[in-house]
Amino acid sequence: MTKMRDFEPGDAAAIASWVRDAHEMVLWSGKCGFTWPLDGGQILRFYERDSRRAWTLTCDGGEPVGHITLRTDTPGWTGRVGLVIVDPAERGKGHAEAMVRHVVDHAFGELGLHRVELGVYVQNAGAIRVYERLGFVREGLAREVAHAGGEWWSAYEMSVLAGEWKSPAAGR
Q1: Which key words tag this protein in UniProt (predicted)?
Q2: Could you tell me what percentage of the chain is helix, strand and coil, using 3-state DSSP and rounding each to the nearest 5?
């Protein structure tokens, strides 16, 4: 049984431990400014200066197995999903989809946003499948926006609108 709750400072070390190398760090965090080797302290300092809302997915016993964030724009029309990660031992079990669904339901329901967007690197095929399955649409390609392992990475910009979203209760 899994449960979403607000991110707590004690989650930072577990989240950092899921990022196994500098390549994965960029894949997960993009241009957030983390440096390798990643540690829980960097994550805590990031959230001290950042205004996004963060959640942790926990399994039986309360152990963290996933993490996700939502940042909203000033007029409160758009939210941006980010920093989506699942413990490597828990991948392939539907946790990412459950987290994204929870955050988008929150964005459209409780916050009344009109649009939710995200960026995903083109080589992250698993994440792209999850986002498309949930109704996100590719809007464009941001070319060579990050540099990792001596390569430039491009990212898809994706979004879903409130009128397109169907919550789990509606059968999506």
Answers
A1: Transferase
A2: 35, 35, 30
Q: For 140-164, how does the pLDDT look when each residue is reduced to its tens digit (9 = 90+)?
A: 999 999 999 899 999 999 999 999 9
**Number of domains making up the chain:** 1
Q: Quickly count: other Cβ atoms within 10 Å of residue 121's Cβ.
A: 20
CA–CA gap between residue 165 and residue 116 (Å, rounded): 10
> CA-CA distance, 155 to 161, in Å (whole number)?
20
Tell me the residue range of the domain where 117 lies: 3-170
Two tokens at 21?
A: 């190398």
CATH number of the domain at 99, please: 3.40.630.30
pTM: 0.94
